[in-house]
Amino acid sequence: MDLTYSEADEQFRAEFRGWLDAHLPAEWRERGFWARQDRDEGFAMRREWEAEKARAGFAGIQWPVEYGGRGGTPAQRAIYDEEMVRYRAPLTVNGLGLTFLAPTIMVIGSDEQKRDIIKPLLHNEVIWCQGFSEPNAGSDLAALQCRAESDGDEYVINGQKIWTSQAMHADKMFGLFRTSTEDKKHRGITMLIVDLHNPDGSLAPGVDIRPLKQMTGGLDFGEVFFTDVRVPKTNVIGVEGSGWDVAMLLLSFERGASAMPQYTAFRRELDDVIGLARDLGRDKNALLRQRIASSVVELECLKYHSLHLLTQVEQGKELGAASSMTKLQWSETHQDIGELFTDVAGVAHQITGDGLDDLQRSFLWSRSETIWGGSSQVQRNIVAERVLGLPR
Amino acid sequence: MFFSLTDEQRALRSTVRDFLADRFPLQAVRELYDEDTDGDPAELWKSIGEQGWLAVLIPEEYDGLGLGLLDAAVLARCWGEGCVPGPFLPTLVAAEAIRLGGSAAQKSEWLPRVATGEAKLALAHGGRVTQADGKLSGTVRHVEYAHVADRLVIAADGGRLWLVDPRGAGVTVTVTDALDRSTVLATVTLDGAAGEELAAPVLPDVLDRAAVLYANDLAGVARVALDRTVDYDKTREQFGRPVGSFQAIKHALADLHVAVTMAEHAGWYAAHALDTGLPDAALAVSVAKSKAGDAAREATAAMIQYHGGIGFTWEHDAHLFFKRAKRAEYQYGDPTEHRERIARLVVDGA
Fold this sequence. Notes:
- Chain A is α+β, with helices and mostly antiparallel strands.
- Chain A has helices spanning 7-23, 33-36, 39-55, 74-86, 95-108, 111-122, 243-252, 260-279, 286-314, 323-345, 358-369, 376-387, and strands spanning 128-131, 147-151, 154-165, 172-178, 189-195, 207-212, 221-232, 236-237.
- Chain A folds into three domains: 7-93, Butyryl-Coa Dehydrogenase, subunit A, domain 1, CATH 1.10.540; 128-242, Butyryl-CoA Dehydrogenase, subunit A, domain 2; 258-387, Butyryl-CoA Dehydrogenase, subunit A, domain 3 (Up-down Bundle).
- Chain A is 47% helix and 14% strand.
- In chain A, the strands form two sheets. In chain A, strands 1-4-5-8 form a four-stranded mixed sheet.
- Chain A is globular, with a radius of gyration of 22 Å.
- In chain B, helix 4 (69-81) runs parallel beside helix 7 (203-235) and helix 7 packs antiparallel against helix 10.
- Chain B is globular, with a radius of gyration of 20 Å.
- At the A-B interface, helix 8, helix 9, helix 10 and helix 12 of A face helix 7, strand 10, helix 8, helix 9 and helix 11 of B.
């Protein structure tokens, strides 16, 4: 057991903190700052700031230098994540591309794809969204129906995607499309790259996007409709019919990440709830104290667990299905903290004034976290079947 | 960054695990339930002394191994996995009081004898014991293995610690029958008993270290209870299919796997935090003990439930795990007490 970071890793931390001190505007770190910004302007500000950060070398921390990354260690990636949260730095605008697409392209992309996709993604020249879910394909993703029919050197896409995060701002989508209805449902799927917007910001031909208002009141996801949208066959990631396997590879990259960012963010939220309890004179209530402590227990366990994950990643071990456990631990704990907030605040948690404050937004948002990226029920099936070996 | 057991600790774990499974399987634990014994199998004690495991926390200058609490936690975990009886953990805990608070003479007298297995010790705390002129009076209940101990470490009012000979004048040790027969709980009654005070009042440190050891014992209980339930539910068929294929059971077992894994990591972290003096050590101790207590209670209760009727029989092992989990849940702070301590640290900033 050794919980210290190497000198090189601590040196990296110092450099990154120095950069953040110099380049992260103080007002951006204030509570509620981003909620007060116009949605599109806020997006543009974050997009440009993140590009500046990439130019300074603080992006793609673990990616190879040949792809524009920093070539750092897993520990440096963890330090980067931790400092981003600690500084209240803005969330990335290109998370799906960074987390999922780029690592996938590094493994199975063509040389052209590696050249054309990875670096522009890192510098926010191209914003990506992920087209997986459909109205009738949620947890049962392989039931997807959006068609891509072969026509010479192209596919012709017709159908719909839904719950697509960042659809309104994305230049391109990587998505799963049905290229055959004859094979078993997992087999007739292909992963394709589709243009959603033209460089001038207008919709690409045959594409229609409608925002969906979320229960937070935000417009972070939408529906995407395709009518005879033509994409060249060079836009296939992997090969035709391999989409399911590519998707599994792609989703596996979520699993390399520790949950230290969630720990840091949720612990701060819990501190805010504790502060609220003090302000309201409820901090001596024995039952609330027990529940606050329960949330501390679960969060501290998440921290220890994350340190263990980081160690396994550094040793080059595959985390595989065990990462479902990590997701269950943080998403369920976050909901508990949201409930704790409303119980401390009482009916006052309903009062919104000019907009949602951070605790209100987080409380509502936590209801999505046990659904996206594999619902808690799907995660429990994965743990039960692939970790414990229980029969299907 | 390395948050895991070392190769040496893993090797120790598999050695101890195999040894205990071979020399003291659950069938032997069962004999303590079915036969009238003193609850302290002599062959088991002799062999663990020979293996040197009692020496784990004793400094090298007192003929010990001088290892850390994490190494001792690895051993405690194996004891929990096998529901292993005997005064092993109680002796380790009481010896920590002498190691941390004893004078040089007290350490020289007792630590080498603990290391070889010649001496058994028990910590008697949580009762009401008063002291006047070195004479102790009062009662302490639920003291593990006081009836076979060579010395008792008694916590008196004011937090001072005293060495007392359980066979001396004014000391009565009465064994009480307990649900869990993988331990023996006794009542210690003192009536003007002679005591020799330890040089330093180290009770809070000792209780923290004990809590970590028992948390790791509980993690072992919880893990084996869960593993055995999973194995059973893979093959037990009802409605023409294995019951483990039903989501009502799958999801419960998946949640337990998460909880037990968290308890395991918390047990390691707390031991390491005390070994290296991390600033969040006190918090980590209470996180580990409360999480392990909850996880072990839930996992062993699930072991009964998801075995169905057979799980409620005397013949099945489920009750051995359940009763041990329930006993250790309350030793060295139950989950509610540790959560209140966490609230004092985090809410009150104490």
